[in-house]
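Human: My hope is that you can spare some time for a protein that puzzles me. I am handing you a single protein, as its sequence and its fold in C-alpha cell form. Could you go through the record with me and say what the backbone is doing? Take your time, and here it is.
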Amino acid sequence: MTAVRMSVQEQQPHMVMLPFMAQAHMLPMVDLARLLAKRGLTISILATPHNAGRFKSAIDRAIATGLDIHILHLKFPCSEVGLPDGCENFDMLASGNDVLKFFRAIDMLKEQVEEMLRQLEPSPSCLIADACFPSWATNVALKLDIPRVLFYATTCFALLCQHIQNNCKELEAITSDTEYFVVPGLPDRIELTKAQLGGAPKNPSFEWNELWDEMRKAESEAFGAIVANTFEELESEYIKEYKKAIGKGVWCVGPVSLCNKDYADKVERGNKLVSADENEYYLKWLDSREPGSVIYVCLGSQSSPSTLQLIELALALEASNRPFIWVLRNASEESQKWILEEKFEERIKDRGLLIRSWAPQVLILSHPSIGAFLTHCGGNSMVEGMTAGVPMLTWPVFSDTFRNEKLIVNVIKMGVRVGVEKPVFLGEDEDEHRVQVKKDEIKRAIEKLMSGGEEGKEMRKRAKELGEMAERAVEEGGSSYLNVTLFIQDVMAEQARLAGLQ
C-alpha cells in the first residue's frame, strides 16, 4: 500500500482524454488537451487513426514547443457493426440509419480503453471522456481508481435545459412536440417546444432508449463535468443553477478555442488542411470588402438544408445585396445541380463566395470585414463567433442548437432568429421537400441585424463586449484560467480519495 500511496502522491498528473468521434466534439477537446499540457500535465489522447489524423498537426506543433502530449490509437470496429471500413467519424455516416451502428461500435471500445488505461505510465490521474460515451467509461475508470469527468462542448444553459427535460415530471404531461411552453426552473423566461428541448429521436426504439439511459447514467455517476464552451461572465446564473441541479463539480474553462493564437492553428482548426493558396484567396477577398459588411454562412459539419430550403437561402442572400461567404461542404447533388443550372455562382460572383470544402472558420470570423454569422448554433460555432465579436443570425438544426439559439437571442442578446421551428432528430435525415423559412423571412432577419438600426447596433456592441470578456476569462487570473487550476486540484484530490489516501 505504501508503494501505491507514493506513486499516486508523487507522480506527474496524467490526464487521459477520450473524445467522441465527431468534429464538433474533437476540436474543443484537443484545445483543452493543449491548455492542460501548458499547465505542466502529461496528456494522452485516445483516438482512432482517422480521427487522430485530423488533429495530429496541431498536436505535433504543441509537442514541438515542449508540451507533453501523446496520441494513442484505438481500433474502431467498423465491420463488426456493419459500417464501411474507415468509417470512424460521425460526419462519414452515409445516412441517419447508420447512427445506431456507430454507437454500437463505440460500445465495443470498452475493453480496448480499459487495457490502455491499465498499461499507461505514469498511471492516469483522470479520464476526461466525452458525455456521449455511455456509463462504461465511468465504470472502467472507477475500477482503476480513476475519476471520470464528463466533457461537454456546449454551454451550461443548454445543459440545464437538458437536465430539466430529463428530470422534470411536469413536462411529462406535455404531449405536443410543436406547442411552446415556458421551461420551468430557468433564471429567464424561455419558451421552447418539446422537440426543440430534447436531442433524442422521435419515436425512439428500445435500443435508442437504452442508449439515452446510458448517457444519463454516465452523468449521474461521473465525478463532475468540464464545460469547454462557456465562461463565468457569459452565463453566471445558469452555471450556478446547473451546478446546483447536478450536485457535482462543474468547471467552466472556455472558450478553449482561444488557445489557437498562431496563424497555423487558426487555419487548421478543422477537418482538413486548407491550402495556403486558398487561404490567401479568402483573405484577399475579405480585404476587398468594407469592415463589418460581409455575412459568413455556415450551417455546420453534420447537416445540410433540403434542396428547396437551400434555394430559399440562396435567393435571400442574393436579394440582400450584401457580400457573403457561404460554406456549402455538405450540399446535396440536387442542390449543386440547382446552383449550376441556375447560374447562381455567376449571378453573385461580384459579391458572393461559395466554399465547397472545409473553411478556416476561426480565421474568417476574426477578419474585420465580417459583420454577421449565419450559424446552426453549434457550441463551437457559437463561441467562435462570440469570441470574434460577431453578432449572429440563428438557424438551429438539432440537439442543443435550439437551446443555444435561445441563449444567443434571448439571454445574451447578440443575435437575430431566422425562424427555424422544427429540429432534425438524431438518427434522421433532412426531409428533401421541407422548407421551414422562406426567402423573405431570411432577408428580413438579415436586414434587422445589418441595416444599421438601433437594435442591430446594440447587438454589435454586445458581441464586441462579450468577445473582450471571453479574452479576459482565459488570461492568467481570469475566471476560466482559475477554473482550470481548480479542476486540476479537485481531480488530484479525488484520485487520492479513490486510492484510499484521504
